[in-house]
Specification:
The protein is an alpha/beta fold. Helices cover 26% and strands 28% of the residues. It contains 7 helices and 14 strands. A 7-stranded mixed beta sheet has the order 5-4-1-6-12-8-13, sandwiched between helices. A 3-stranded mixed beta sheet has the order 7-14-9. α3 crosses α6.
């Protein structure tokens, strides 16, 4: 496949504290699920879509990530002395990512496509004239493992992040998106979350979404690791 968006980033700098002793000697993205590290699964999915350059940010035990992925010559690394969170991590990697829109994926979800890939679905919906950030949302009924509470409503065809006190939120962000680098022009420096940029884009009417039609697994705890292993090896 020839992708229109040629660059992707995977956020792999965190340790994954809730995995407890499993990450004492191994960064969370290298934890194996159903015979394959989570990070390698995402790399393969990106590359199969046609993404030609993948940037991975590293901090906690980053040397192990580089060793595990040394066979992939299309990967570049953005090293962080101290973890910069999601927004800071992407901003720090902008010199490698370039001036065109790029995919960003968290390093801890596993998703199973039912039709086309999530990258194809995002790319088909991407319109840089109207959109700065395009999020892949998933209905909670299609989410398994260590599932956070929902965080988005869809109102008048647009995503709206939950407000304090709201309950029964039907959708959650699945950790995959397209971002235009122009959103970082007025962003803070240092440590910050991409959520801050989502909120800015939402207020400006430039946050969009797709509803992903596959299944999604979040491996955030040892218990969810067991559950996901069992689900994917049936």
């Amino acid at each position: 496949m020839s992708a229109l968006i040629k660059t992707g980033m995977i956020l792999a700098a965190g340790r994954g504290i809730r995995m407890r002793e499993l990450t004492d000697f191994l960064p969370k993205p290298l934890i194996t699920v159903a015979g394959e590290p989570i990070l390698t699964r995402i790399v393969h999915k990106m590359h199969a879509h046609g993404i030609q350059k993948i940037v991975i940010n590293t901090c906690y035990k980053g040397e192990l990530i580089k060793k595990a992925l040394k066979a992939f010559d299309f990967i570049q690394y953005s090293d962080e002395r101290h973890a910069l969170e999601t927004g800071g991590g992407v901003k720090n990697a902008l010199p490698l990512l370039g001036n065109d829109p790029f995919f960003v994926s968290n390093a801890d979800p596993i998703w199973i496509d039912k039709t086309t890939s999530v990258f194809s679905q995002l790319e088909a919906a991407w319109n840089p004239e109207t959109t700065d950030i395009l999020l892949a949302l998933i209905p909670l009924k299609q989410a398994f493992g260590d599932v956070p509470d929902g965080n988005y409503f869809i109102e008048k065809g647009l995503p709206r992040r939950q407000r304090p006190g709201e309950k029964n939120i039907p959708y959650m962000f699945m950790g995959v998106q397209i971002i235009h680098p122009r959103v970082f022009q007025t962003s803070p420096d240092g440590v910050f979350s991409l959520r801050e940029l989502y909120d800015v884009a939402e207020k400006q009417g430039r946050l969009r979404h797709i509803v992903y039609d596959g299944d999604w697994y979040h491996v955030g705890t040892p218990e969810s690791l067991i559950e996901t292993n069992e689900a994917l090896t049936k």
